[in-house]
From TrEMBL, chains A, B:
Subunit structure comment from the entry: Homodimer. Probably interacts with PlsY.
Gene name for this UniProt entry: plsX
Annotated source species: Caulobacter ginsengisoli
Gene3D superfamilies cross-referenced by the UniProt entry: Isopropylmalate Dehydrogenase
Molecular-function GO terms, alphabetical: glycerol-3-phosphate O-acyltransferase activity
InterPro entries tied to this protein: FA_synthesis, Phospholipid_synth_PlsX-like
Name by which UniProt lists this protein: Phosphate acyltransferase
Amino acid sequence: MPESLTLSIDAMGGDHGPSVTVAGAALAARQYGTEVRFLLHGDEKLIEAELAKHAVLRPLCEVRHTDKFIAMDEKPAQAMRRGKGSSLWNAAESVKTGEAGACVSAGNTGALMAIAMLVLRMAPGIHRPAIVAGWPTAKGITAVLDVGANVESDAEQLVEFAIMGAAFHHAVYKSARPSVGILNVGSEDQKGHDEVRGAHALLRATTLDLDYYGFVEGTDIAKGTVDVIVTDGFTGNIALKTAEGLARFFANELRAAFTANPLSMLGALLSAGSLGAMRKKLDPGGANGGPLLGLNGIVVKSHGGADARSYASAIRVAVDLARSDFTAEIDRNIKRLTAVTSETAPPAAPDDKVE
Amino acid sequence: MPESLTLSIDAMGGDHGPSVTVAGAALAARQYGTEVRFLLHGDEKLIEAELAKHAVLRPLCEVRHTDKFIAMDEKPAQAMRRGKGSSLWNAAESVKTGEAGACVSAGNTGALMAIAMLVLRMAPGIHRPAIVAGWPTAKGITAVLDVGANVESDAEQLVEFAIMGAAFHHAVYKSARPSVGILNVGSEDQKGHDEVRGAHALLRATTLDLDYYGFVEGTDIAKGTVDVIVTDGFTGNIALKTAEGLARFFANELRAAFTANPLSMLGALLSAGSLGAMRKKLDPGGANGGPLLGLNGIVVKSHGGADARSYASAIRVAVDLARSDFTAEIDRNIKRLTAVTSETAPPAAPDDKVE
């Protein structure tokens, strides 16, 4: 039986505020019972009005009032300057003080990242945070990171992402020894730019608690070739959004194909069950809960537009991470990495980048 | 009535050699009649054996024998050293001498690029070639470039891609004044790294024969927000292959959903027509014929695994480009760009890259 865990919730974050965040917590409470308690940060009146609808949840919650909150379009720099005392800030602060084991926010990504870094600071040995996406594949879920915390990453940062991604996959998807690939334009050693080739050489040279597979290509994501795919935040963000766009396009085309004529409409009716299951499985944006990895504390970002069910799934990710040995595993691997990088830089691959 | 055009064909390139390249030419010949003639480079006996099957094609062809060809796994550096006199080399050489208006090859991308650059050289004012993909979207076809000729691109090269992509879209998809976007992690001016922000500032500052839209995100590709999407070859290659992988995953899941139970199988039967049309429309790798833009001459790359129908579509792209004012348009815009960049570098956007 796991120990009781407290989560801090930015109840005001997201497009819908407490109506979604409190209802999401209520759904999670059905699953966890008294094992998980909640600190709800935000406007007391609004939160209490929502709590009144969920009798089971009420005794599991403590409300921390603030009338300050971060707008969904607030710039990171402004959020950092003016954010102190906001529901987002206070939610992160509860993790720092140890009152909560993890925090969840559906607030805007830039502000969440800026405030979380300011309040919690980077974990020892980690240079930059990364946002990780759980990507549905033919074989299960692949963790893809970074999908937007950074616009550029050097070789060592990519290796740190590999370590954090593996610990995340192990903690949340229970893989014994996650396989890790670096996203590239080909699988041969000489392919790609200096950053990916440097990370490739470093991962080859270091013994870590992960199974380094080598380079993977874009087609390998949906195949589920590896458990963890490492990339810089620019490429990862574009790959994820390209896939989300295609998934939406696909859903629209499918709808159009099924309403093209009476025969196909009948066909759609007959196939509705299997198709619905498929659709849910396909959207890379479907699995909610993108942790910000690399901080001194667990912070999970929910989609801003999440509904209660989707918000509950972000809560579940936070619970899984808080209950795992996630942080210790990262720490152990970072120490091994530092031992290698401080000794000697690995030799660069030959300079033949032409495909 | 267009003038007669001669295409040079690397008849040995691709996984299937003359059995596909000659059959593809035969399909194209049905459409173009005597308006398009072919120079077929490769093993005379093998080519003649295939030509014997296509009576209509035979009088439109001249066979140029060589028993040298580039293997599909040959490294670019090796292909450059040893490629002289090969079917691929000779096909490019025919464009250089002016015997052919364009060439088509299904040979390996790296070797084709290396040899084409060596034989044809870069067009005036263009620093690097780009491979362009015709990407099916909700609104038509968006030209995405670069999808793999380069691993890194600076701001000026991205602007050159914009110019080449717009000329390509105009020539092949007949858009009057193509809209162009730069792929980024957000749409605001301060988003992204120096290269995309520099290109953004340059395109804002220059008056070109194109409609500069601004930054677009990954989700905008499938939406068809713009006619041309510009990105570096690393990101473009990964976005394209991610989408190809996802499209294949969709197709498999769809098949699985339709065979899940007898009812859904009946459903599939009833909807077959509309679904087949949809499937063909969705695969970003489905439209064959990726030109190598930026050279002194038109070179179109076909998929190595193309069948005759798909090879014919690569031939059609080559014909459209050869018949258009594509080259003159690029030249005109490059001159305008050079006028701006030689005057003064545009001011960089403010240094606030955090999302």
